Amino acid sequence: MLRAAGEKYLPMDVLYRKKSPYPKTYDPSYEKLLRDTMSELIQNGNEPICALLDRKKVIEFMESPTDYGRPFYGQLMAGPQLLAYLLQVNYWLLKYRIELV
Question: 41-67, pLDDT tens digit by residue?
Answer without folding.
Answer: 999 999 999 999 999 999 998 988 655
